[in-house]
Amino acid sequence: MKKVLILSVIAFLMVTSLHVKASLVLPPAQFINIVDDFLMDELKAYPMFADISAELPGSPIKVVAYLEQDTTSGGAAAEATSILLSASTLGILPVVSNKDLKLSYRILVNGQLLTEYSFIKNVTESDNIWLAQYDRKLDKDIVTWVKSTIPEVVSKLSNDAKVKALLDEYNFYFE
Q: pTM for this structure?
């Protein structure tokens, strides 16, 4: 009876250790966030990003998240026209713009790009000409979209051969 119990415990420990090794966890890495403050907390909810921190400036591994805005060709024309209309009505009419938001996640090792994944969303915004310069927060729907990209980037990074090779090398030297 004792042998069966001991073998069962050993088998359980082996299975759980295999499960832990099967899930990818990035080593301690500096997180550079150029999106918004909520993103780090959202990423840390996933085991892969459990060890990221903004307080690791000397870390050779960096996780960078940033948001770019690219004006579309039709959006530039619409924005120029709506600026003129808004200015002629002293700001009564809103300024309408159409742009592509590009959210990129990068993993850098020693300053070199290891891998990058980007997500693009087309948005149309309407702002008051007088208040647009003071409103620098992301809209709720954009925040929801940014949060929705996190599971997808975790999935892509988990299957990325370069990230797996980085983790294998890190584990070889540091574990």
A: 0.77
